[in-house]
Design goal:
With about 500 residues, this protein is an alpha/beta fold. The chain folds into 3 domains: about 200 residues, P-loop containing nucleotide triphosphate hydrolases (Rossmann fold), CATH 3.40.50.300; about 80 residues, Helicase, Ruva Protein, domain 3 (Orthogonal Bundle), CATH 1.10.8.60; about 180 residues, Ribosomal Protein S5, domain 2 (2-Layer Sandwich), CATH 3.30.230. It contains 20 helices and 18 strands. The protein has a 5-stranded parallel β-sheet, sandwiched between helices. Strands 10-11-13-12 form a 4-stranded mixed β-sheet. β17, α19 and β18 form a beta-alpha-beta unit. The structure holds adenosine-5'-diphosphate and magnesium ion. The site of magnesium ion (MG) has 4 residues, from α4. The site of adenosine-5'-diphosphate has 17 residues, from α4 and α9.
Length: about 500
């Protein structure tokens, strides 16, 4: 026991290795080499590196990358380490719910070991490494003490010069470590920890950005992983676009890389068998390689009947589209709401219905219809709880669509809270929602006019693809979103 303790003490890098000053121009080059796009984020990282260069001993802020999976949070950390020419270690905090995992066990325990932080230092072999605290929001709190309290000490520049690991029993200086955290959502991050960190959000990529990332990085990496040379295969950009559109639906590029890997493994088989020496992959080959498209034309199909509107949701893993479905059965004016909606969302269904009732004659709805029918509003994907007022416009549109028997345009998505006076109120998460709308192939989005201030944050790729309709009042939503009434109304019930 004493021996392994001494081994630990000897193995730890106690001294600071010579630090090469950071070369800012070189750092910029490295960031550009490793990542496509992300201009704002890269320039923030350059600022950070510049400050570290000018004040190496100063208290640099702790950067925290916030965003959905697969947008490059972890790999940005690796680039920062490369740009600073320091070793990189990753400490995965997902599922850590015991203080001892951070701070180590006392040596009196059988099989005691130092905690994550000291182990990572040993792995890095340098006291000034770049340490990524990955998924800091997934850190739990168990009965064995709160790991976030230990984390606070690790991240506090006043205290981390003398970090005390229970196993080591002597202070270890963490003050030269460059900490970078990542998180999917802020909800899980304890407030005091949040205070110590500077958040940098990554929203997710548009289809065009994904295509560029695939062309420049993912294909190359998957070729290498599967032992194929670049000249042995040619992938048509349209084939990549098809994979992006019909086989993945995500904010990041992780599944995209996986699907590209699948395609290339198939090519690897052909090359290994000797049946081909040069493969070309066109869009028509994709179905035989990857199977039937997973996300094709979902929107057009679902909005093909009156009563379904496409809404936009903000989730911890990026924006998403969601469908609001309304249907009517003979009854006595009842309202049923399903789909695991939270209280606020249920209330917004009621507000939407009241608005429709109040505007019935104006909308061309026979007011008597409300007494003769029960209305059911459902938001599919029932397993995920949903809440918030931002689907108000979509609910109003779905109900109006149902009762006027006019379908909602399948190219249009909407978000916005409604007031009982028919005003459209601003909502959050505009950037993520708009990116999701563009990614889903929609071409028009209806947003609250008071969210115009968020327009500048929307990536140019998404902006170019979409027509923006700014709503002051719900009536404008109806005018813009519903198809004209059909000459021969279909038998609905
Ligand atoms: N902008 C980008 N340019 C090039 N590759 C990217 C970009 N964004 C993500 N990737 C790649 O996607 C993969 C997933 O990224 P990762 O850093 O693991 O995501 P996260 O940590 O955010 O979940 C990595 O292989 C990464 O290199
Ligand atoms: Mg990661």
């Amino acid at each position: 026991m004493v021996r392994s303790y001494l081994d630990w003490l000897i193995d730890l890098p106690w001294s600071i290795p010579d630090e090469k000053p950071i070369d800012i121009a070189e750092a910029r080059k490295i960031l550009d080499q490793d990542h496509y796009g992300l201009e704002k984020i890269k320039s923030r990282i350059i600022e950070y590196l510049a400050v570290r260069k000018l004040a190496p001993g100063g208290k640099a802020p702790i950067l925290c990358f916030l965003g959905p999976p697969g947008v490059g949070k972890t790999s940005l950390g690796q680039s920062i380490a490369r740009a600073m020419s320091r070793p990189f270690v990753r400490v995965s905090l997902g599922g850590v719910h015991d203080e001892a995992e951070i701070r180590g066990h006392r040596r009196t325990y059988v099989g005691a070991l130092p905690g994550n932080i000291i182990q990572a230092i040993k792995k890095a072999g340098a006291r000034n490494c770049v340490m990524m605290l990955d998924e800091i929001d997934k850190m739990g709190r168990g009965i064995q003490g709160d790991p976030s309290a230990a984390m606070l000490e690790v991240l506090d520049p006043e205290q981390n010069g003398t970090f005390r690991d229970n196993y080591l029993g002597v202070p270890f200086d963490l003050s030269r470590v460059v900490f970078i955290a990542t998180a999917n959502m802020l909800d899980g991050v304890p407030g005091p920890l949040l205070d110590r960190m500077e958040l940098i959000s990554l929203a997710g990529y548009t289809e065009d950005e994904k295509l560029e990332i695939a062309k420049r990085y993912l294909v190359r990496r998957q070729l290498e992983a599967n032992g194929i040379k670049a000249e042995q295969v040619e992938i048509d950009p349209d084939a990549l676009r098809l994979i992006i559109k019909s086989y993945t639906r995500e904010a990041g590029v992780r599944n995209l890389e996986r699907e590209i890997g699948k395609v290339l493994r198939n090519v690897a088989v052909q090359i290994a068998e000797g049946s081909t020496s040069h493969a070309t992959i066109a869009p028509k080959d994709i179905v035989s390689l990857l199977g039937q498209p997973r996300f094709e034309n979902e929107i057009a199909q679902r909005t093909s009947i009156p009563g379904v509107a496409t809404g936009l949701a903000w989730t911890p893993v990026g924006g998403d589209i969601l469908f609001i479905e309304a249907s009517r059965t003979p009854g006595r004016g009842g309202l049923t709401i399903t789909g695991q909606l939270g209280d606020v969302m249920r209330e917004s269904v009621q507000a939407a219905l009241t608005l429709v009732k109040g505007r019935a004659s104006q909308l061309g709805i026979d007011p008597a219809i409300f007494e003769r029918s029960d209305i059911h509003v459902h938001v599919p994907a029932g397993a995920t709880p949903k809440d918030g007022p931002s689907a108000g416009v979509a609910m109003f549109t779905a109900l109006t669509s149902l009762l006027t028997d006019r379908t909602v345009r399948s190219d249009t998505a909407m978000t916005g809270e409604i007031s009982l006076r028919g005003l459209v109120l601003p909502v959050g998460g505009i950037k993520e929602k708009v990116v999701a709308a563009a990614a889903a192939g929609l071409t028009r989005v209806m947003l609250p006019a008071r969210n115009k201030r968020d327009y500048d944050d929307i990536p140019a790729g998404a902006r170019a693809k979409l027509e923006f309709i700014w709503l002051e009042r719900v009536d404008e939503a109806i005018a813009a979103a519903l198809e004209p009434a059909k000459a021969t109304p279909a038998a609905a019930e």
